[in-house]
């Protein structure tokens, strides 16, 4: 799965783009009180796929799809800055 799509609000969605821990930590810190910064490299490497949302060019949304190595996949780590869609 690859590609990108922009919605009518100007938010750009990218499938599994190159992504650094600093970007994810900044988003998680802004969206979740008490987030402790960590290395997301191992998490992203083991993801089935992840979707990132960008607005002017900041990361404003993230969802991680993980799997059991077989037939089951599920969503983890959903974060967004809801106010960006009103901007």
Identify the overall geometry.
globular
Q: CATH homologous superfamily - what is it?
A: Gcn5-related N-acetyltransferase (GNAT)
The overall average pLDDT, rounded, is 87
The ordered H/E elements are: EEHHEEE
Count of DSSP H/I helices: 2
Report on the architecture of this protein:
This protein has 87 residues and is α+β, with helices and mostly antiparallel strands. It has one domain: Gcn5-related N-acetyltransferase (GNAT) (Aminopeptidase). 20% of the residues lie in helices and 37% in strands. Strands 1-2-3-4-5 form a five-stranded antiparallel beta sheet, covered by helices on one side. The longest helix has 11 residues. The radius of gyration is 13 Å and the shape is globular. The protein starts with a strand and ends in a 7-residue tail after the last strand. The relative contact order is 0.21.
